[in-house]
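User: two proteins, same treatment. go.

Assistant:
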Amino acid sequence: MKFEPISQSLGPKTPISSVSPTAPTVHLQTIGPEEAGQRLDNYLLRWAKGVPKSHVYRIIRSGEVRVNKKKAEPTTRLVEGDVVRVPPVRLAEPAQMAIVNTAQTKSRAQGYSDKMPILYEDDALLIVNKPAGLAVHGGSGIALGVIETLRITRPELKFIELVHRLDRDTSGVLLLAKKRSALVELHRQIREGQTDKRYYLLAHGEVTQGAGVMQLKYALHKYLLPNGERRVRVDPDGLPSHTALRVIKTLKRENATITLAEAQLKTGRTHQIRVHLQKLGHSILGDDKYGFEDQDKMVKSKRLYLHAHLAGFTHPRTGEKMRIESPLPVEFTAMMKLFEVASEKSETIKAAT
């Protein structure tokens, strides 16, 4: 079982791209234990927000970036104590970066943090219950995500990185690493299928499971819409994907039926569960990318009904088997209650007649 890791490119707290476009200056960065072991190009790319990738490679190859006063290659592995000289760089989007320091942004970040309960924390890990509607990181017009929120509200954390991603509209268990060693180890577990990630979902219609757990296996292909939005479709030329689906309960009322199910990821492709349920003919309630608007209007969906309720893994430092769970969101229970009440009324009417 695995879910998709994110890039491991890490760096110091002060981004090299925060150099003012009107007052460029040389930066000298000393590599600490959390940055050690990275490639030079990854180190620079992680923090050169808004700087074109081609420009980062150009300043490395031209010798403007120096490691311990010597020219270095993009593939150079950094060692603790190395001093990296970074030449003046100008932001491609200075206004977007400047917003991080405003009082308004700090206030927004605190508001997001208050709605993001901590499920588990120690010196290596921070695991939160991400609310639906909050992206895991900024970008594409989003100034604040989970990672930016935590860097603003938890300035005492010298290092904090996402272990994996959740879609913006998906809620639930989200793992973050407070040590680079923990991040590397969790990414290894993900790659080698040693983690367990499970989701609750509400799907349109009655999903018929049969005798055993349904094994949904489709090749998935990522593509872009004309407006630049990312989408995924079932395509023979795509990458293999596998979801195990277990039906928990079917709820009916006069004009609609929904199914509560648990999905266990065997692979971690983009939008995997959502596309698998669409292919099955039972899209997830509230899915504005792969669902049906008329069905969602019928049941009055107010969010994407997909929730990461369980993460299982081995603690990267202690070796302990971990099982972190998040309760079913109130929106799920409220939606199911609507169907249960309708069903109870129906049974009462039938009994009376």
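Protein 2:
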Amino acid sequence: MKVRIWDLPLRLFHWALAVCVTVSIVTGLTGGNAMQYHYWSGYALIALLVFRLVWGVIGSHHARFGNFVHGPGTVLRYVRGDDPRPAHLRAGHNPLGSLSVLALLTAVALQVISGLFANDDIFNAGPLTSYVSNRTSAIFTFYHTTIGQPLIYTLVGLHLAAIAYYAAVKRQNLVRPMLTGDIDAVADMPSARDTWAGRLLALIVVAAGGVLAWWISTLGSVSSY
């Protein structure tokens, strides 16, 4: 018997985030004309982050922050091999995985925010650059290029390494549930509410995030992330 743990909006968010982060990395390293796609992927990330923040409050059971964010004690016990959660509540992100999710979302958010104020003093400038001093913009630029960029690389690398570890050592496929949304059920395991009404609500939230991203893009004649 299967149980739905990842609703469709959350699964689409996951893969869209992966695509946008990849596009942002590749186009940022390429530069030149590719920067236009860099800008667009950055704006798309704003919409996605808005969705995830809202969906973490009103989304289905396993998507809500309150149902998968754990304290340091629980994380440490899990790392030591002692999962304090009952078997039926072990679906979704484990305590260490939840920490990884929060770290990656925070890093992406900081990268996007810093990009809004960053500039290269030549061709590219974030849409909000003119709203801060040159010194402040330089600080955001330093973070964006020197701290945030390698931080994203590190967290993405750790994420991929964890997927490979679970596949090779624990014989658990973490990718399939993020494609199908389902895992093998355990008695009393809560399932995700994945209705068309919920999907419509998710679409509205994403659209609102898109409007916010578009508005931000209009604040500067030239933008860069």
